[in-house]
Design goal:
This protein is of the alpha/beta class and 302 residues long. Helices cover 56% and strands 8% of the residues. The relative contact order is 0.13.
């Protein structure tokens, strides 16, 4: 009888979690820090320097975010997830706004005590950026574009906000009518522009650390050490071992699953998926980016 009661209780809890009032309350509770900052309220923090985390899409974004959250928490930083807030609410993705448009939200950014993670593009106009430690996660833009084709077409989750969900479904429908070569050429300028913004920020500020997805895969421990050193974070031996074990497990994944959010982890996917002519056009378009971030411009498949 007790097992039956437990099953019924579990079923009731699952049903209640789906109820709109419960979901609204969970959202309200989850984003209490984001709401406080938006309302310009005081939030008790440490004097630890705030960290701003940027990424290109399809560069282990959520995985890196989880690492940042884990390590940031051990160093007393309060997480601020404005993009997650925008995912579920009628609130703009800050990295999609112009400097003029983002000005009304700049009070969110405070140079001590917070971890801002993760933005899928540069938030323009943040004053005194050297007062923060900035981490930018990048990936070969040609692989980013190929991965985006499969993600947006099949595996990427739909935003919870109704308007954004409608826009995303319309975009997914468009992607479904394109070839992978057509998609990457259609989206390449947006990707080039965002990566150029990251490159320009790196060149203008010593407080910026650029980390590569490919280096994370090749030598996770060195990648992690660079992240911790730049943020001036210390983590426990247990946390470090957990992160290393998780990374080793992830690196054992082989093959390709086009319906999985983590479809392909092997670098150089663009040379396996794109026509030579497409790669040559991308090489020309991304020439400065590829050189600056030390990516090969080869067309031949690995």
């Amino acid at each position: 009888m007790s097992s039956v009661i437990r099953r019924i209780a579990t079923s009731v809890r699952r049903t209640l979690k789906k109820a709109p009032p419960v979901q609204s309350w969970e959202t309200y509770r989850r984003f209490r820090v984001e709401r406080a900052l938006l309302n310009n309220k005081a939030v008790a923090t440490t004097e630890q320097t705030s960290v701003i985390h940027y990424s290109v899409n399809k560069a282990a974004t959520q995985y890196t975010k989880r690492i940042m959250l884990r390590c940031g928490a051990e160093n007393g930083l309060i997480p601020v997830c404005m993009s997650d807030y925008a995912w579920v609410k009628d609130f703009p993705y800050l990295f999609t706004l112009s400097a003029d448009e983002v000005r009304r939200y700049l009070h969110i950014f405070r140079p001590h005590g917070f971890l801002y993670t993760v933005f899928g593009g540069l938030v323009e106009g943040i004053p005194d950026v050297d007062r923060y430690r900035t981490v930018i996660m990048i990936r070969d833009p040609r692989d980013v574009l190929v991965s985006g084709f499969y993600s947006y077409g099949k595996s990427h989750a739909t935003p919870k906000d109704r308007k954004k969900a409608g826009e995303f479904e319309a975009f997914r429908e468009k992607v479904s009518r394109q070839s992978v070569d057509d998609f990457v050429l259609d989206m390449s300028e947006n990707t080039r522009w965002r990566m150029q913004q990251y490159l320009d920020l790196q060149r203008s500020s010593e407080s910026v650390c650029v980390l590569r997805y490919e280096d994370m895969l090749a030598d996770f421990q060195t990648w992690l050490n660079r992240l911790l050193e730049h943020c001036q974070w210390e983590i426990s031996a247990a946390t470090r071992q957990e992160l290393l074990s998780s990374a080793n497990e992830g690196q054992r994944i082989s093959g390709e699953n086009t319906t999985s959010h983590r479809r392909q982890v092997v670098p150089g996917d663009h040379r396996r998926k794109l026509q030579g002519e497409t790669i040559e056009r991308l090489n020309e378009q991304f020439a400065e980016i590829l050189t600056a971030f030390d990516y090969s411009q080869s067309v031949t498949a690995p």
